[in-house]
Specification:
- This protein is of the alpha/beta class.
- It has a domain of about 120 residues: Collagenase (Catalytic Domain).
- About 35% of the residues lie in helices and about 20% in strands.
- It has five helices and eight strands; from the N terminus they run βαβββαββββααα.
- A five-stranded mixed sheet has the order 2-1-5-8-7, sandwiched between helices.
- α1 crosses α3.
Length: about 180
């Protein structure tokens, strides 16, 4: 059997979010999510931007991905970016094995608002589905309620549901059957 790993990158304070992400992935993909401790990503820090380069993080994850991994989704509290964008909520190899989600901009506090744990956990689950969807070859969906809908801001995440629309779910159905092998 192959496993879906959810790896924490030095963020033990976010166990509740990692659990919520693991649960939605287990429910959606029908395979238990296994925890995995991962090293820090200080090597990916860009001092000018005061952010972390997600491409470098993906390269590290590809080297550390367990042999029995079906997919590996890493979770960090660090703010991520790619060179052409101000920030990213996450990034994943399209139809690949590794992806990463940043929790930094999913919290209300990031925007100067009071904490709202329920909103935070819901956003984390949606982003876990989104990045894992990319790992299964899904591209951005035009259905704004689908977890695969493009989000360039947190309000777009809030409009999504923590599930795939029927066409996107249908595209991953063959992969879900392979997971039990």
């Amino acid at each position: 059997m192959r496993y879906l790993y959810v790896g924490a990158i030095a963020c033990p304070e976010e166990n509740e979010a990692i659990t919520a992400m693991s649960e939605v992935l287990t429910q959606t993909f029908g395979v238990p999510a296994r925890p995995l401790a991962l090293p820090g990503i200080d090597f990916a820090h860009d001092a000018v931007r005061a952010q972390y380069a997600s491409i470098s993080v993906l390269e590290m994850l590809a080297r550390l991905c367990p042999e029995d991994a079906w997919k590996l989704l890493a979770v960090t509290t660090r703010d991520l970016f790619i060179p052409v964008l101000t920030f990213v909520f996450g990034q994943a190899q399209l139809a690949g094995r590794v992806g990463v989600v940043s929790l930094a901009r999913l919290k209300q506090e990031f925007y100067g608002l009071p904490p709202n744990p329920d909103v935070f956990l819901e956003r984390a689950a949606k982003e876990a589905l989104h990045e894992t969807g990319h790992l299964f070859g899904l591209t951005h969906c035009s259905d704004q309620s689908c977890a695969m809908s493009l989000s360039t801001g947190v309000r777009q995440i809030d409009l999504k549901q923590a599930k795939f629309c029927p066409p996107c779910l249908g595209r991953i159905a063959p992969a879900r059957k392979v997971s039990s092998l």
